[in-house]
Amino acid sequence: MGKLAPNLKEISLKRLSISNTSFKELVHWLHKVEKLDISECPLIEESGLIHFFEKNGECLKELSASNCQDAITNNTLKALTDIKDEEEEAPVCIITFLDISYCKRVTDEGLAAFEGKTYPLTTLNVTGCNGISGKGLVHPIMACTATLEHFIGGLLDQEEMKQADFGKALGLCTHLKSLDVGGNKHMTDEFFNHLTSQEIEVDGIKVKIGLSELHTVKLNFLENLND
Asked: Is the full-model pTM beyond 0.90?
């Protein structure tokens, strides 16, 4: 179908048992896809998704890949952040929506691929990624502090979420509208102290950033919070 419809801009394959080979054949001919949903496609592998990035990465704005255990790995995150203009060899990733929830193979090594880079992400969903830590989350969040509106990071019940560093990063997101950290039972007050105490310098004066645009907060089942 890809060869016959080269102008496709949006593809949803959610819960489709498409093989990795068929997926690679489909995307090989596509160069204009802006939205791709492969959520719960168990047969797509990292080689297939990396091939998609190579053929179509410059146009991709939204990637939904929830519970894609073999497609979303540290290697695919590195490939995503390395998308370049073929002619200028310059980074051109324009992704605004990234859902890698329940992708168990992602670790801090994969999140580190975002370090020192900038992306226009408005939504980041890492719910249920139990191979990552609070320290590792700093990198993707810092890559989009100017644009991030929705952070969805619930059900991260690993002990490594005690590391509250990502609270500092989220505190720098001036347009944050919703925050979901429900079910992160190892998170402590330190995260929220960091979240609410970040400052910027304006005309030589330090000013607290605040969370004036925040309208939705989900804190259910946070067992280690105090009054």
From this structure: yes
